[in-house]
Design a protein that fits this description.
The chain is α+β, with helices and mostly antiparallel strands and 277 residues long. It contains eleven helices and six strands.
């Protein structure tokens, strides 16, 4: 792995959820956005990262040109789609030159026309980048730095050390959780500490960023625990400052069954999210 690729990845693991905007991932201050995008595409080809791109220039395809020659009353496109086709009929243009608004609607129409083979992207730019499981495994298990010259700043080294520590803790938690699950399958009730480790493991597995909805834990531990036994255990962990319980404000993303998994309160909403201290 080249130094600039390593620096890009270490910038990425320093971001929340190992994802960030392309302009936040320049290996150094002198690296241009175009070079950063080139590095990103190389890493994408090796499946170490994935990225989302936006179309910055469009051009018409032969199918689009043929469609424009058809009778205007029988065209299989909307008025705005036709506007886009006509705008790029003779030259490569930026999406804004189509005069179709708003921008979000324009993006959807352009994506649809590209998918149908009527136009094509002539240029794109990378917006967001995310580390893949393959990239994570490479940094954790396969990358082997060599050489005598120091090439990493302390900030990048900090990102790498924090990344390693977090994932080592996650592996340990998952190992403990497997033991807990095996015990549960035999009807043995987990201890409070084992419940805490299960919360940590579920949060890592589901990517809930230390904001685990309680229904996931109930699905895991009821049975062997009863609802009251699990609630009591969560309250004990809270009193020991090992866990925080938070109520839910916006419920539109959850089903009634999932909402009913919360712990009702006399005042305010039910306690619904679990956060490990």
């Amino acid at each position: 792995m080249e130094v600039k690729e390593l620096k890009f990845l270490l910038k990425l693991v320093g971001r929340d959820n190992y994802q960030g905007k392309i302009n936040q991932l320049k290996p150094n201050s002198k690296t241009s956005i175009s070079e950063t995008e080139s590095i990103c595409r190389t890493l994408c080809d090796r499946e170490l990262v994935v990225c989302s791109e936006t179309i910055t220039k469009i051009k018409i395809q032969s199918a689009g040109k043929a469609l424009l020659k058809l009778d205007a009353d029988n065209l299989p496109v909307t008025a705005n789609e036709l506007k886009i086709l006509k705008a790029c009929a003779n030259k490569v243009i930026t999406p804004g030159k189509t005069k179709v608004t708003p921008a979000k609607e324009r993006e959807k129409l352009i994506a649809s026309l590209v998918e149908r083979g009527l136009i094509a992207s002539a240029a794109t730019k990378i917006e967001q980048v995310r580390l893949t499981e393959r990239g994570k495994k490479t940094l954790l298990e396969e990358y082997n730095p060599k050489g005598t010259n120091s090439v990493l700043s302390l900030d990048l080294l900090h990102n790498y050390v924090r990344f390693l520590r977090k994932n080592l803790r996650s592996d340990s938690s998952q190992s403990q959780a497997r033991v807990i699950l095996e015990a549960n399958s035999n009807g043995k009730k987990p201890t409070d500490e084992e419940i805490l480790q299960t919360i940590i493991q579920l949060d890592s597995q589901l990517g809930t960023n230390n904001y685990l909805p309680i229904f996931h834990l109930r699905n895991q531990l009821q049975p062997p625990l009863s609802r009251k036994e699990l609630d009591d255990a969560l309250y004990r962990l809270q009193r020991q400052d090992k866990l925080e319980l938070s109520s839910i404000v916006e419920a539109v993303n959850y089903t009634n069954e999932q909402m009913n998994a919360g712990i009702p309160q006399d005042v305010g909403g039910a306690l619904f999210f679990l956060m490990v201290n």
